[in-house]
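seq as requested:
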Amino acid sequence: MTQENDVYGLILAGGKARRMGGGDKALMKLAGRPLLQHAIERARPQVRDLIINANGDGARFDAFGLPVVPDVIDGYAGPLAGVLTGLEWVAENAPDCSWLATFATDAPFFPDDMVERMLECIEREKADMACAIRNGRTHPVFALWPLALKDDLRRAMVDEDMRKVDQWTSRYHIVHVEFADATRGMDPFFNINVAEQLAEAEHFINGGHDDAAAL
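struct tokens:
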């Protein structure tokens, strides 16, 4: 069976906190630590190693001690550009890896067994890739991507100007892996976009039970 050691991790950290006054969302503090640190701590045990995908001056992430890799497609082309960036970087720097797992920084409670369960489902269903789903809603940035399709993705993005994740994955056998609520009913893919959601996440971490995040 394929093991997590065959998987490299990519943390998508390029989001801007426009609805919270601007700046890097990944560097916003939750429980006294940057959102990026929460993502690293949840993702690191699941993969061989991690890289950060972000454009601009990578030095702003120096404190995290991970390689920072900018998009290989110009023009802020969305999550697919981050996926392609990760696939090509891993193919060059860890060519014995077969998979890339992607994680977003603004969902700090994502499952700590995500990679394990996705690998199991891919093998069982003989699928090409896997994506998280909860209550009928897919979360395409929480996914497992095969290194073998990196050239196909580059062709789609460059030759076809493809930018939608679902449009590309629909060409392959993708398995959607269902994840239930995390501890105390929290949506594991609770997403922080506004100040109120950051406050909800803070309340949850501090032991609150009346949060509105369990949607």
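DSSP finds six helices and nine strands in the chain.
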